[in-house]
Write a structure and sequence with these properties.
With 162 residues, the protein is an alpha+beta fold. The protein is 51% helix and 12% strand. The two termini are 28 Å apart. It binds FE2/S2 (inorganic) cluster (FES).
Length: 162
């Protein structure tokens, strides 16, 4: 496990201090930690558990229960590919395969260089646009492997320029 920066630990402490007297503080704290750090590190679960009298196992259970929480740091750029039924039958697996090939990230993981996260999602509620992918919040309907490649290469290009 990578050690957290002092700044991240300070953020966690501030969140815990701010909400420890709230009602139902665990969820509120988890949301705020994730909003600030982009994920929920183990240290946050320990601190939240200690401040609220909840076992780390219970906090972990909450994190695991809600699909919106993640315990892994996200990459700088996030690619979501819908694997809901409508998108799947229209070929979203090929989009995922292309994204994995180009980024080196596995499904629901972050690439080793920390640039890309690749998330497979359930139906995004835009089945009329199937297959759908979302690149850094931009929804791309009738997406193709070529379009995925174009988007990823554009990001790679920008990253190399920076
Ligand atoms: S199945 Fe992909 S948006 Fe509905």
């Amino acid at each position: 496990m990578k050690e957290l920066s002092g700044e991240s630990l300070k953020t966690i402490d501030e969140v815990v201090a701010r909400h420890k007297d709230d009602k139902g503080p665990v969820i509120v704290m988890l949301h705020e930690v994730q909003d600030n750090l982009g994920y929920i590190p183990f240290e946050a679960m320990e601190k939240i558990g200690a401040a609220t009298g909840t076992s780390v196992a219970e906090v972990f259970g909450v994190v695991n229960f809600y699909a919106g929480f993640t315990t892994e740091p996200k990459g700088k750029h996030v690619i979501n590919v819908c694997l809901g039924t409508a998108c799947y039958v229209k070929g979203s697996q090929a989009l995922i395969d292309k994204a994995m090939e180009l980024t080196g990230a596995k499904i629901n993981k972050t690439s080793a260089d920390g640039i890309f996260s690749l998330d497979a999602t359930r139906c995004l509620g835009a089945c009329g646009l199937a297959p759908v992918c979302v690149v850094d919040g931009k929804v791309i309907g009738q997406c193709t492997a070529a379009r995925v490649e174009e988007e990823i290469k554009k990001i790679m290009h920008e990253e190399h320029m920076n």
